[in-house]
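Reply to dn_fold:

You asked what the input looked like. This is it:
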Amino acid sequence: MIINVGGNETFVATGGQNFDPKKPTVVFVHGSGLDHRCWALQSRWFAFHGYSVFAPDFPGHSLSKGEPLLSIEEMGEWLVEALVVAGVESIHLVGHSMGFLIVLESASLLGDRLKTITAVASAAAIPVNEELILTAETSASDAADMMLRWGFGSHTQLGSSAVPGMQPIAIGRQIMSDNPLAIDLKACRDYSAGKSRAESLSYPANVILADEDKMTPCKFGLELASSLNANVSTIKNSGHMLPMESPKRTLDAIKSFVIKNSN
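and this is what came back:
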């Protein structure tokens, strides 16, 4: 669906079902340089099992208009505004990597509309290599190649795919090459409030980690989980791009937690 946020047309994937703001809504927040497509399996399952799905492309990403936002704080405020525009009443926030930093910024602004928060392959702080940022400023596709060599686990690097006929590395490259990757990476680099934000929250929290994650290693995810007093699960033989690399296992870890905390 298309909604107007801040004067710009914003694309929101709804999992293949009409959006109903009165249903409990699972909000999927994409990571750096990505878009709604990274949540394809997860969003479709929730949309066909009693939930509404709200998976936006952030401004300047893929199908959404507007200038890219320059900071995690701005992105958090934008997400809250988008949810207000859509009239969402009951919210489960799910964020991948940078997306969970945005969740941390949004959470305190949503009050009792927010029911749960879930981090997927994330941490309270995400340092970014300056060489990667410099590469992204010159060529998003070259930077995407660098990230994807590190972002997927060993099985996927050898050609394994959870979806027959589709190669997640190729899909990731296609998405990231056309999006403002450098801006997102700099926003991650500059964000320093994650730990304090996490410690201030008391919502039911879920942290999903990947044992081969080289971009936000498990030890940092466990530190985040400690700050949130969160449920923790670890997906084996997978890297940082969990929603695309291990879509079914990531869905299972999300849905069991959301369903448990929906009543």
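The two ends are 27 Å apart (CA to CA).
Hope that clears it up.
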